[in-house]
Each structure stands twice: as structure tokens, then as C-alpha cells.
Amino acid sequence: MRRARVALVIVIVISYFLFSSGFVYEISGATTTTRMDTPFSFAFSADRVDLIGLPTHDDLSAVKWISQHALPKIPIQSGYDGVLLLWGFGMQDRITNEDYVNTRYVFIMSKYSKTGRWEEGRNGGLRILKPIPKIDSDKLVFQSGDAKVYFVRS
Amino acid sequence: MKKALVLMLLLVTETAVASLNRVGIAPYILVAAMIAMFLLVALGKINPKYYPIYLYGLGLSAVWQTSMLGSYLVGVDIHTEMASAKYVIEHGWNIASSDGNATSLVVAVVTPFLSKWIDPVWQFKALYPAMFAAVPMILFFAYRHMIGDKKAFLAAMFIMAMPMFTMETPSMIKGLVSQTFLALVMLFMFHPFKSWVKFLGLTLSIIGVVVNHYTVAFVAASIVLGILGMKLLFSLIMRRTVGYSWKPIGIATVCVMVTLFGYYSIVSQGGMIATVKGAVTHVANVAISMVKTSDVTPTTTSVVTTTTVATKEPSTTTPQSTPDLTVDKLMQGYLERTGGDGDGLYLENQEPIVKTALGLDFASSTWLGRIFRVLQLITELAIMIGVGILVIKRKYPFEYIAGVLVCLALVLGCLFIPFLSITVSATRFYQLSLIFLAPALVLGFDFLARGRVCAEQE
């Protein structure tokens, strides 16, 4: 009886760990990111579900280009993960998430190009996605792989 | 020992290389290693003198599996911290800056100093997480004299297994460094060091906690003051000094209060203290409004932000001043963030993570989600049983039991006081509280497994 109880507790602890580590989320193929269901892990599921904004080398090239060559004081628009990259490069004062800003740069990360969506925001790891703006290709001012920078002027 | 070192070195190297190159095998190997280690220790197959090596190796792999992902930074706050560090590198440290990140010594002083030799990106990705990875090992040394080597190891492993340890904390450098110092506070408080070592260690550790992250500093102050208050109360009731001598808690209290209010009165022109005062006011106002059924007369209060914008120019006016908003508007904003509709029991308007902890979203979860919630509730039950054992058995240091009760109160506050969890982050509070509560969890599970409380070395 005691052995059974010990075994049960061990099973409970290991099961809890398999959930909290994000293992269950990954092997079950879960994709829920807009509400709390089972815990996820960046290490397991970052690529499959795009849980965290992992920039590619192309994304970093694009942000560096913006920091070095973009016209100063012109607002820059991007999704949440693109905004974080821009912030890390010291451009936090220029960030806008408003489509109605007439003159602006639009930074499209590689993953935004592939999915056609970007993050509107995050709350405790949960993500809300919306379509990226449709912009004519003649407004493209920089491209590295799938990472693009557009300059939109009214 | 050589085998332990080689095994952990292999694990850490594999994790780092696989994470950098985004090869997906690293987390599977780590999960298998952690389960194997748990079973081997639980069954008494590992020599306790090698526990620290395994704890550090597993801890480092757990942290690096997140922080070393890809070639750049991972997280949210970490990007704002990088912006602040780069600003200091270019312009120097302005102690009056309203940038909250610039109040953190690791961001504003250490990173710029080390940038002469190590790129700040790699300091954030590798160096500071390697320091934080020592937390489970440090806590093992803190716990072992209270609950024995095996239980101490398992308690440390539980902390390491939490998503907050592996994901959230490595994404915020100031919190990461501050929590490492908090673990050291625990060590110097409860490990039987010589008196002068305790004095020096406690002083330096507390200073380290305070000057690196304001939120952890205020939580640490709450814990220390809570312990002091309980010690005073029970010493008065029992008419003798309960627990240790007054020196350790006295040193801790003086250090934390002097450093906290002294340092944060100077940096950022006192902005952090104003922020905390505003936060306390908000929580009180909104909590009362959420719980009471009758209308509350709107009062004007300042808006609190939980993250601070990194500014390029230091502010010369009083920072943290924002337009006043009524309580109704604060509640509206709160409900928008939590997705609540304002109707029903106020707990149903808490944020998602709190509802998960309380099991309030059970009905809307998938079957896997429901299994997880049952397991989550079992761990919470184990913690409560463990706290009961600590209090009833009375053979653990009084200061430790007091710390456990204070941390339990903090966690329960996050669950049941509206707005508090959003203001200070429920997951962060839980992780900080686990520094005291993890042994209780192990004692609770031990009781559930054996049906009795066992001697420490069993």
C-alpha cells in the first residue's frame, strides 16, 4: 500500500513536470496561444508556434539598416516582436502601431512575411495576431532575405 | 565526481550548441535528464556530495535552453534593458534618469563596464543566466540543514522545473541578478556559517538584491519585515527570544530598509518609490471597488505602469507623473486586460494565470488542460500540507517558518486581491515565494507518499 502511494506521488510529480516543462504542449501539437490551457515552452515550441520573437540574421540586418540609414524622427511601425527589436536598438521613441500615421517606416520581420500576420500585443505570453499592412512593393527600401523595410509616405 | 562533471559538461554544451543553432533536440534531452535525476535521487542512487554539481548543470541547461535560443536576445523586458545599457555605454550613467532600467546596477553599471571585453548581447544571453543557474544549488545548501540532503535537492529541482525559472526570469536581467542575490540571502540566513561570515554575506547579498531590481527589492523588504514582525510578536507573547538571536534579522532589516530607501531616493529622483506608493494606492482602490457591491466614490489617483519606458534624455522634472484617472477607468482598463466582464464573482475577473491557479477556468479548458489543472491543484495542496507540517513540527528555524507564512500570504494576496497580480506579476511573486515554499512542497508530497512525516535523512 505504501509502495503504491509512493509510486503514485512519483507519477504525479513527473506528470506535473512534463506539463510545466512544455513537453506535453509540444507533443500534443497544441497551438493555443490566446489563452492559458497547458503550459508551453520557448525551447520546445518557439519555432512551431512562434511563441517568442526569435529574430533571424536578416531581421537583425534590417533593424541595423533602420538604425543607421532611416530618416530620423520618422515613426516606425511593426508587430510586437519587431517593436521589441527596434526598442533594443534604441528606437523606442519612434515606434508607432497606428496604420493612419501617413509617413512611416514599416518593418516586416521574416516571420511576418511568411505568415502574413503580426502580433498586436501580448499578455502574459498570450498573443493576439492581425494581418500585416498591405504595402506596394515599390515602397520597399531595404530587404534581406524575407525581412523587409518599407517607407510609406502619403 | 569526474563522472558527474563530465556528464553535466556534456549536457550544458549540448544545450548551448543546440539552442544557438535552434536544433530542437535540446529540451527533450534536458527533460529526460531531469526526470532521470529526480528518480535516481528519490531512490537514493546518487551520492549527496555530487548533488551541487548536478543541480548547477541541470540549472544551467534549463536556463540556457531559453536564453541561448538563436543569435539574439529572447524575451520582452530584456530588449528594453539592452536599450538602457547601450544608452549608458554611449552617454554615461545619469543617476537622475527616469528610466527604470537605469536604476539597476547590473544594467547601468556592470554591463557597460564589462562591454569592453564581452558584447552586451552575450552578457545577457550567457553570462548572467550562468550566474542565475546557481540559484537551485545555492538553495540546496540553504535547505539541507533544515530538511536533509535529499529533500533539499528535490526542493531545488522543483524550483528549476518551473516555467518562471526557465523562461520568464532569463528574459529579464535585472530580476535574474536580483533573484540570485535573494537566494544568497536565504543561504546566509539559514546555513550555519560563522558569525562574521553571516554578517558580511547577509549585508552584501541584501544590497545586491536591492540595487538590481526594485520589484524584487520590495518583495524582499516585505519578507524581511514580515519575519521581523512575527519574531517580535511571538517573542513578546512567549516572553523570550524565539528562533535565532536578533542579529541576523536585525542586520537584514537595517540593510534592506537603508539600502532600499536610500538608494531609490537618489536614483531616478525617487521615482521608483513614488511608483510603489502609487501601486499600493491603486491596488487598494481597485480591490475595494471590485469586491464591494455598492458604488465607490471615484477618487483621482495616478496611473501605475509596471514597465518603465527607456528614455534617451534624462527627465529633469519629477518622474512617474501621469494624468489622473478615476477608479472606474482603472477598473475598465483592468477588465480589458483580464478579459473579464465585470459581472459575477470578482475572482472571475482576475487575469488568466490566476484563474488557472484557482481552477476557475476548468470548464473552458481542453482535457489536457484539465489534467494539468488537477496536477496544479495537487501541488498547491502539497504546499499547504507542507506548511502545516512546518508549523506543527516546530523543529525548523522560526525565521524560516515566518518567511514561509509571509510568502504564502504574498501568493494568496496575488490570487485573491484584485489588480495586485497585474501590478506585480503573479508568476514572479510565485517564483520568489517558492524560495521559501519549495521545501514545504517536498514535505507535503513526502507526507502524501508515506502517510507520515519522516525524519530528515529518509
Q: Give me the secondary-structure category of chain A.
A: alpha/beta
What is the number of E strands of chain B?
2
Question: Roughly what percent helix of chain B?
Answer: over 70%
**Sheet bearing the most strands of chain A, described?**
5 strands, mixed
Sheet-strand content of chain B, in percent, reads under 5%
Tally of alpha and pi helices of chain A: 6
Helix content of chain A: 25-40%
Multimeric state of these chains? heterodimer
Give the structure's gist in a few sentences:
Chain A has 154 residues and is an alpha/beta fold. Helices cover 39% and strands 21% of the residues of chain A.
Q: What keyword list fits this structure?
A:
heterodimer; A: about 150 residues; alpha/beta; 5-stranded mixed beta sheet; 7 strands; elongated; B: about 450 residues; mainly alpha; 20 helices; about 70% helix; about 0% strand; globular
Task: Outline the structure in words.
The complex is a heterodimer of chains A (154) and B (458). Chain A is an alpha/beta fold and 154 residues long. Chain A has helices at 2-20, 23-27, 42-49, 57-69, 80-88, 110-115; strands at residues 76-77, 95-96, 104-108, 117-123, 126-131, 140-144, 147-152. Chain A has a 5-stranded mixed beta sheet. In chain A, strand 1, helix 5 (80-88) and strand 2 form a beta-alpha-beta unit. Chain A is elongated and about 75 Å long. Chain A starts with a helix and ends with a strand. The model of chain A has no long low-confidence stretch (mean pLDDT 86). Chain B has 458 residues and is mainly α. In chain B, helix 2 (26-42) runs antiparallel to helix 3. The longest helix of chain B is centred in the last third of the chain and has 27 residues, at 367-393. Chain B starts with a helix and ends in an 8-residue tail after the last helix.
